[in-house]
Amino acid sequence: NLMTQFLNSKEHLRDHTLQSQLTVGFVVNIGHVVDDGFMKLLGLIGIFGKLSLSMLFVLAENRIAMVPLIVYPVILGIWFAVRENTTMQALGQKTQAVSGVVQKIDDTMANVRVITDFNLREHVAERFGQALDKSNTAEINTRLVGETNSMMPPLLTCVFVCGFMALGATIVEGVGDG
Fold first, then answer.
1. How far apart are CA 5 and CA 25, in angstroms?
2. The whole model's pTM is what?
């Protein structure tokens, strides 16, 4: 687990690791592992189960319909492979931005006496606001990337269904003419 890795890391690395970095690492990254890893895996297992059952039915009824069932996962795999770098970059920026906010809070709490004694409230508040703005921008970017990624499967499904319906109509017309 993450705590074991931290405790087993070299002393000079532990000494330079900020508490805020560790906190964000646990809170944010654990959520990503569960939401973007394990839960997505369960969804993929469900999709491949449905796809397998569909393929069995289609093989018995219409072999031409097998083409979209084979091409669909290939196109989705290519799409997600292309989007992986963008997704990971957005998640990394979000984690870094949240870490910056937590770091500003830690710094403020640790130095509150100095901040108030030297009347640095406005300066600290402004820097904290900048960190929040960066975090909000990263959150919006991460959500946009996630939405873009999630729109591809329904779009591709629509394209395949429409294409198959058009193909089916031409096949029915051809049978009616003959």
1. 12
2. 0.72
* Residue 139 neighbours by CB under 8 Å, 6+ apart: 94, 97
Give the list of residues 6+ apart from residue 6 with CB closer than 8 angstroms, or none. Answer: 14, 17, 22
φ, ψ dihedrals at 110, nearest 5°? -70, -25
Query: Phi then psi for 112, rounded to 5 degrees?
Result: -60, -35
Q: Exposed (0-12), middle (13-18) or buried (19+): which is 149, by Cβ within 10 Å?
A: middle
Write down how long the chain is. 178
pLDDT, tens digit, 9 for 90 and up, residues 80-132: 899 999 999 998 899 899 889 989 988 988 898 999 999 999 999 999 999 99
In the numeric block, which tokens belong to residue 29?
Answer: 């990254």
What's the one-letter identity of residue 94?
Answer: K
Task: Give dist(CA 37, CA 84) in Å, integer.
Answer: 13
**Which residue, among 46, 47, 41, 65, has the nearest Cα to 55 in the 3D structure?**
65
Going from the C-alpha of 4 to that of each of 8, 21, 107, the distances in angstroms are 6, 15, 26
Extract the runs of DSSP E, i.e. beta strands, from the chain.
none
